[in-house]
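Exercise 7b. Backbone tokens:
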């Protein structure tokens, strides 16, 4: 079995210190093969916020795949936003905006969806989709191919989702909305395409919780079966605990929900 911890929307600068400490303890107890962070490590892309985010990541002694989010682009520093939008992220978090991780059967690839000219919206370049498809197609059919991006995909806005599905992506991990959700692409968007698993993480540590507790996901894969467990913050206990697990099994038409 391989285990992936999926964190998102840390928002250092608006973090809850109790939750940060409990999250480090929870992830350390899980001992994942890799920790994935799907963007928004900071609240306003300030140097001190990036430093706090970097210290948090350093406290997790595991392999990591991290991509930026729209909050990791300066909002008020217009010069930096235009000429060096991800400079702070690169200096303090990671210089690689297209990170990869391979530990068979896991194959994970990151995608930068930030759009510096916009406050919130995303962009997906055709050349990035082509690169990702070329990368994942070199691996074995039995490997689980996971894409990490900050913004959730909407096929109405991003027809590239169709291409990623056809070229073999099995799971897409995203954040941005501060709401946890796990489903199959066919359940969400309808039939007519290979079904993949769409996993959205809530905010791991931010005080801006959108009417649900801080949360993160634990993805486990074994023998072409994938489970996604949501871990939710319980203030009265001062820690995270399981808040439900969804199971998926692969068929010739893709990935579909299954009994545990």
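Sequence design result:
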């Amino acid at each position: 079995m391989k285990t992936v911890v999926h964190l998102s929307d840390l928002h250092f600068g608006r973090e809850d210190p109790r939750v940060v400490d409990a999250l480090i303890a929870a992830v350390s107890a899980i001992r994942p093969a890799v920790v994935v962070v799907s963007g928004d490590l900071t609240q306003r892309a300030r140097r001190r916020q990036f430093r706090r985010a970097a210290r948090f990541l350093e406290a997790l002694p595991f392999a990591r795949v991290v991509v930026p989010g729209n909050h990791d682009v300066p909002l008020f520093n217009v010069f930096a936003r235009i000429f060096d939008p991800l400079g702070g992220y690169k200096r303090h978090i990671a210089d690689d905006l297209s990170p990869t991780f391979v530990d068979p059967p896991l194959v994970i690839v990151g995608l930068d969806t930030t759009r510096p000219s916009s406050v919130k919206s995303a962009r997906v370049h055709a050349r990035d989709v082509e690169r990702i498809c070329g990368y994942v197609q070199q691996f074995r059919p039995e490997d689980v191919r996971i894409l990490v991006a900050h913004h959730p995909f909407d096929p109405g806005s991003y027809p590239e989702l169709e291409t990623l599905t056809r070229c073999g992506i099995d799971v897409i991990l995203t954040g941005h909305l501060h709401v946890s959700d796990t489903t199959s692409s066919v359940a969400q968007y309808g039939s007519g395409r290979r079904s993949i698993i769409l996993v959205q993480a809530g905010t791991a540590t931010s005080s801006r919780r959108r009417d649900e507790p801080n949360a993160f996901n634990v993805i486990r894969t074994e023998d072409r079966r994938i489970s996604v467990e949501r871990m939710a913050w319980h203030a009265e206990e001062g820690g995270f605990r399981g808040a439900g697990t969804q199971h998926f099994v692969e068929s010739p038409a893709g990935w579909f929900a299954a009994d545990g």
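Instructor comment: The chain has a mean pLDDT of 92. The helical segments are 17-30, 47-58, 78-83, 87-92, 126-136, 160-166, 185-189.
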